[in-house]
Amino acid sequence: MTSLRNDASARLEAVSRRDLVIDLARVACILLVVVIHLLMIGVGYSPDGELVVSRPLEAQPWFAAATWIGQIMPLFFAAGGFTALTAWRSLLRKGGDRADFVRGRVLRLASPALPLFVFFAVVLGGATIAGIDPALLDTVATGTGSPLWFLAAFLLAQCAVPWMVALHDRAPRATLAALAGAAVAVDAIRIATGIEPIGLLNLAFVWLFVQQLGFWYADGWFRTRHPLTLVALVVAAYALIWVVVAAGWYSPDMLTNLNPPTVPLMLLGVAQISLLTLLHRPLAALMRTRPAQAVVYLVGSRAMTVYLWHLPVIIIVEGVSLLIPGAAPEPGSAVWWATRPIALVVVLGVVFAIAPLLLRFEQVPTTIPDGRRRPGSAAIAIAAVLAFVPPFLVLEFFLDLPIAVTGVVLLSLSLWLLRARRLAPA
Asked: What residues contact 270, with CB distance under 8 A and at least 6 apart?
């Protein structure tokens, strides 16, 4: 026990020597996602005893306006760009190459996703065999699987990092302008033709643009701007969002603009990274405190587990509450809102309770041990595609039993292709 405490203390000391503002932003984004999903799922009993299922948060008149602040996925992708750029440059200094980087990124996303797809395959398969109402099963599966879209978008953006960094180093302004122009063109064609699948191209252009902002942040561009310049960027970004929304081209609900990703998300990225820079000094001071470092380390080291598993846990907690007298008030009622902090503590408690069981999937080693060799570039490329397909299918068609089973098979193959091979005997 003493050695564990010493190890944790050593890790915290190492963390304290880093600039953790980006890590704080990533953790805050993940926790906000949990809070939003908890408030969007309402399951309880009305005063007359009828079961009520609703989405209380979306029913609020201020909900759409709140998404202009609460839609924080652009900030998460920008933070991911910062982390990826520094990791890529560190890997280069150690003699690594593009294949090493892509392999590491795919491992870190595919590995924690596999047990979740196994869970869904088992649960949905069992429920189907048990004869559960298919409509109810479809509703639950669609809701609990919705966060998986992120894996497709983030994997695509992260695997492109070595090439996007090269473009950034060669022509940063032209690269950013080209991505923005491509995203605008895709949206314009989609809006003009009404063909929604065209918008899927922005799964690349929008998120690569936002990730590129993280490169600029890492290189110090935002930090060297005058505060008034950053304020002007925030105002300009939100003003442009207002213009395109007022023109009727986009929904005022920024969550709706998430699938397919649209130009307003790029503008939100500019505003959010500028705001983060404006707040960097007080946030850095906060992150010099031990309690803040401990929270960031605790959540950050289990970030994928919290993100991937919080919705299934929310559904389970809501289901259990129905069996406890008085624990499931009518969704949207004053009592329901008052009990949300308690529900949040319970959900996070359950997630962190199961986290040790999933830790080996989240903290998968990416280094090649002695006596083994890295798989070839072709195998790594195939593994990346295999890992991309299951979450992309969820993004397009929503989760169901066939997609869950497909995810188990393809992610297992992906991880098998990425494993280190034994060296051939001399």
From this structure: 213, 233, 234, 237
